[in-house]
Design brief:
EGF-type_Asp/Asn_hydroxyl_site; 987 residues; 5-stranded antiparallel β-sheet; EGF_Ca-bd_CS; glycoprotein; EGF-like domain; 6-stranded antiparallel β-sheet; 10 helices; Laminin
């Protein structure tokens, strides 16, 4: 489970905690005040009242400014003319833009564009009307000229031809000379002939601002607009309505240029953006499937896989990481997993294990009495009989069981009286006797069995012979010690650490004063800066150097035991030698005769700095285990388990004919039930009598079962009769199916000997094969839906699943993740503590298809069908959903009918602090939360959901997951949630 440094989240509600941690805020525990609803607030009439988690706050309406208690009209026209291109008109709480004559307001409500006056009655012109920016001009046909009104035309062009006047001419009132004059809106140029347009007429031909000069109008633009090359018109920059662009806008010489973010391309209108289908480009690098989403794409994995940190490659989901996946053992498979049960247990509901009642099927194979136990069973015999070594058959109490010769030994047995035997077991050369209690310090042992011992073998407390082992050692001894070095720097590089480790190893093994003779080894060397000794600190301070405390573990390995020095002797000698070595090391360091060479430079540990620990640990090499202070190699028929560090019996179907091995050898052509557990030879793989045969010992050579009898098991001393005088086809029959009956019963049925008819297996039983006289019992408390079941998978747990905690839990349909039973009803009640609300997360639901909507789940306030309903469905749902309960408590009911079944559901819930109610609802109501496959996968990941429940319920638990990698979450998921949390804590 993984997240980041900084303030990014683990799951969507961990953001709550991050915001608290990073911004130094703590949530209130009071309910929202209702001043706004009741009208008891003190906000200004031009303000809005906003409820907060603690009380309320006032906010002036748009167009007003102030603290909410006092609000004044905001004169928008004061700042950059309100963004208007020409005129701005302020109004209470608002403003509007207006244009000069000759212009009309643009669609954006701020810019002004030219009005074409010529559209209406030619602008009043008698001949021609020519539109211009902000105005228009009348023109006359050839041979005519405009009169002073500027609209009517008269015949002749005398003023222009004779005097060169632009517009009109007249006789001066002072000099009787003819002079030029201009129409309204123009002024006469200094040359006395040309007429120049002023700003009074059509804003001087300027789109925005006009400034009159001696040479005519000079145009400029409103704030955030740019003057075009014509010197008159204006174009909006990107700061005005984003340049008309839907997304990104860039200013250029030719005006705003629209751009689109990654995953989009520009539409042909040059303004809007359309999605790019990345999946058209050969799946865009996805290892499996590609799914296009708006503005991007995502790689989708098949069930049982998830996308890796590169968001493209699918990797297997290791379901076994969660210890709760399987009741017993979990085996991860590519894209899936498989659960296994311990011996004596049976799998049901895909992941669950329950005890097998072996005694319910043919008495567990016991000849007399069978007693079921958890995970196993026991056979027992009636008085006067005792169990055969095969643990199923019964033999006369007055009979000694046969002892079998063990490896590395010679077994001699002789009769010493009526029904009395005496055996001596002698180990071969260099082998010593061992049993479960450990080393026996002997090479031979005697046994006796007969009337004098009540037919039990002496010197066999566990019922089995001791073994002779050649792999017996005294344990190695280890002790930690430390000394202090003084160096220029206290940092030690890894290569230097290895050099010091090798140097120490060489000192103890090859320096004659230690006499270690290559039996010493250094297991590790660790370094730390400084020392606790003030004396050493002062010495280092005076020299300006650094102290390095060096800790190491020294191990001494013992010599082999012999007839002259047994284990106890060798252990004492090794311990004595170990103490001498440590004493020599102390003296050598104290006398400054101990030095470590590093890069051709010698370092001497500081005097009196050598400190060995008091504790001495005894160790055994792998392949041996410490029993009663002796290292004993795993014996024949066992192997050394690296994980448990113990010797374990070879399971059925394997054997081991050597000592101190790390695995067992598979039996060739092994059949389940044959051989024995802890087999020591290949012959023991198949030395038991096979089904259809028997012998007095249960071992080969064997006899065939006679006609009318059969034997389905290995290693038995008799055969079972068919019963009721029934016969078999021949000798050597292996099961009841070989008995000649009137009718052969099909799967799901059994032959009733007393009635000689077939009967259905009752509920709670099943039979997958034909021609049987029994049915298997469902394991544990499981039950079949109907009579006549043929599969073990038909056994279902009818108990309603639930895992309840103080703040969170999980509700599961019976038998989940296996199919739920028919005709079952579950009712759960969730009643959280005060000031907590309920959040429900439904990763998916699988219900049986039924037109009548009979299998359903209902969530409402109470049992009353008219109470407030939070959720109800009778349909399967693959898409996850999260929602908050409409009521503070929930009554939940699931019902199935007697028809089809399905997988059902596993629904987690959490009771969160109601302070976060608005935030939680804001998040779970956003459809984008489940819009992509990667988002949906988050809610289907059991590992993430476990963390989700814990963090939502107890936000301080977030600290446990603070350093988990953010790479587990797609960036889109993080970006969706961050602003929601930020807004919540800023309100």
């Amino acid at each position: 489970m993984k997240l980041t440094t900084g303030c990014l989240l683990r799951l969507f509600l961990t953001l709550m905690v991050i915001a608290l941690v990073c911004e130094g805020k703590s949530p209130s525990t009071t309910n929202k005040a209702k001043h706004c609803e009741l009208g008891t607030h003190t906000c200004h009439q031009d303000a809005i009242c906003l409820s907060t988690r603690k009380s309320f706050r006032c906010k002036c309406k748009p167009g007003y400014n102030g603290d909410g208690k006092v609000c004044k009209d905001d004169d928008e026209c004061h700042d950059e003319n309100g963004g208007c291109a020409q005129n701005c008109i302020n109004t209470p709480g608002n403003y509007t833009c207006a244009c000069h004559d000759g212009f009309i307001l643009a669609p954006d409500g701020k810019d002004c564009i030219d009005k074409n006056e010529c559209f209406e009655n030619k602008g009043g012109c008698s001949h021609q009307c020519v539109n211009s920016l902000g105005s228009f001009e009348c023109k006359c046909n050839s041979g005519y000229s405009l009169i002073s009104s500027g609209k009517q035309c008269e015949f002749g062009e005398w003023c222009r031809i004779m005097h060169g006047c632009d517009h009109n001419c007249r006789t001066s009132s002072t000099s009787n000379k003819v002079e030029c004059f201009c129409r309204t809106g123009y002024f006469l140029h200094s040359d006395g002939k040309r007429c120049v347009r002023s700003c009074e007429l059509g804003n001087g031909g300027c789109q925005h601002k006009c400034n009159t000069t001696a040479d005519g109008p000079v145009c400029s633009c409103a704030a955030r607009y740019l003057l075009n090359l014509d010197g008159k018109t204006c174009r909006a920059s990107c700061s005005v309505n984003n340049g008309g662009c839907e997304r990104k806008c860039m200013d250029s010489i030719n005006g705003p240029v629209c751009q689109c973010p990654e995953g989009f391309k520009l539409h042909q209108d040059g303004r809007s953006c359309i999605d790019v289908d990345e999946c058209e480009k050969k799946m865009d690098g996805c290892s499996h499937m590609c799914e296009n989403i708006k503005g991007s794409f995502e790689c989708v994995c098949p069930p049982g896989y998830k996308v890796s940190s590169d968001y493209k490659t699918c990797v297997d989901i290791d379901e076994c990481v969660m210890k709760s996946t399987c009741d017993h053992k979990c085996e991860n498979l590519p894209g899936s997993f498989k659960c296994h049960c311990k011996p004596g247990y049976q799998l049901y509901g895909v992941t669950h294990c329950a005890d097998i009642n072996e005694c319910s099927v043919q008495n567990g194979g016991c000849v007399y009495n069978c007693t079921n136990t958890e995970g196993s069973y026991k056979c027992s015999c009636k008085e006067g009989l005792k169990l055969h070594p095969n643990k199923h058959d019964c033999i006369d109490m007055r009979q000694c069981t046969t002892v079998v010769q063990q490896p590395n030994s010679v077994l001699t047995c002789v009769p010493v009286g009526p029904k009395e035997q005496h055996c001596v077991m002698t180990c071969e050369e260099n082998a010593f006797l061992i049993n479960d209690a450990g080393y026996l310090n002997s090479t031979s042992i005697s046994f006796r069995c007969g009337p004098s011992t009540n037919y039990e073998w002496t010197n066999m407390p566990t019922g089995k012979l001791p073994q002779c082992s050649r792999n017996i050692l005294a344990p190695s001894l280890t002790k930690k010690a430390r000394f202090v070095l003084i160096r220029d720097s206290c940092s030690v590089e890894p290569v230097e650490a290895e050099m010091i480790k090798k140097n120490l190893t060489d000192i103890f093994n090859y320096d004659q004063k230690y006499k270690c003779n290559n039996s010493c080894q250094i297991n590790f060397v660790e370094f730390s800066c400084g020392s606790r000794r003030k004396k050493f600190q002062q010495m280092a301070k005076r020299s300006g150097k650094k102290l390095v405390t060096t800790e190491f573990e020294l191990q001494i390995n013992p010599r082999e035991i012999s007839y002259n020095c047994d284990v106890d002797c060798r252990s004492k000698k090794t311990r004595k030698k170990f103490n001498k070595i440590l004493k020599k090391a102390r003296q050598s360091i104290k006398g400054q005769k101990f030095s470590i060479r590093l890069y051709n430079k010698e370092y001497k540990p500081m005097k009196k700095s050598f400190k060995p620990e008091k504790a001495v640990e005894e160790l055994c090499v792998n392949g041996t285990q410490l029993i009663n202070k002796t290292c004993i190699g795993c014996s024949y028929g066992t192997y050394y388990d690296i994980q448990t560090k113990k010797c374990t019996l070879c399971p059925w179907g394997t054997y081991q004919d050597k000592e101190a091995q790390f695995s067992c050898i598979e039996c060739p052509n092994w059949q389940p039930g044959s051989g024995q557990e802890g087999a020591t030879t290949l012959e023991q793989c198949n030395d038991l009598c096979e089904p259809g045969t028997y012998s007095t010992s249960g071992r080969k050579p064997c006899l065939l079962c006679s006609v009318g009898t059969y034997q389905p098991k290995y290693g038995r001393i008799s055969c079972r009769p068919c019963g009721m005088g029934l016969r078999t086809k021949s000798t050597g029959s292996t099961g009841f199916q070989d008995c000649l009956v009137k009718v052969t019963c099909k799967a799901g049925h059994y032959y009733n000997i007393s009635t000689q008819t077939c009967s259905s297996c009752p509920r709670g039983f099943y039979q997958p094969r034909t021609g049987q006289d029994f049915c298997y019992t469902c394991p544990g408390k499981t039950m079949t839906d109907f009579e006549g079941s043929t599969l073990a998978e038909d056994c279902k747990d009818r108990r309603c699943g639930q895992h309840m905690g103080d703040y969170y839990g999980i509700l599961e349909s019976p038998n989940y993740p296996g199919n739920y039973p028919v005709n079952v009803e579950c009712v759960w009640k969730i009643k959280p503590q005060k000031q907590r609300r309920i959040l429900i997360i439904i990763p998916q639901i699988q219900l049986a298809d039924n037109d009548k909507c009979e299998d359903k789940i209902i969530m409402r306030k109470t049992k009353n069908p008219y109470s407030q309903n939070s959720y109800e469905t009778c349909e399967s749902r693959e898409r996850p959903i999260a929602f908050t309960a409409k009521s503070k408590k929930l009554w939940i009911q699931f019902k199935s009918t007697g028809n089809k079944t399905a997988q059902g559901f596993s629904i987690p819930f959490v009771a969160y602090n109601e302070e976060y109610e608005s935030l939680v609802e804001d998040i779970v109501r956003d459809s984008r939360l489940y819009s992509t496959s990667q988002h949906q996968q988050i809610f289907k990941d059991r590992q993430l959901l476990t963390v989700l429940l814990e963090v939502i319920a107890t936000p301080y638990s977030y600290l446990k997951y603070f350093n988990v990698s953010q790479s587990m979450f797609p960036p889109s998921f993080i970006n969706l949630l961050k602003p929601k949390v930020r807004r919540f804590f800023q309100s």
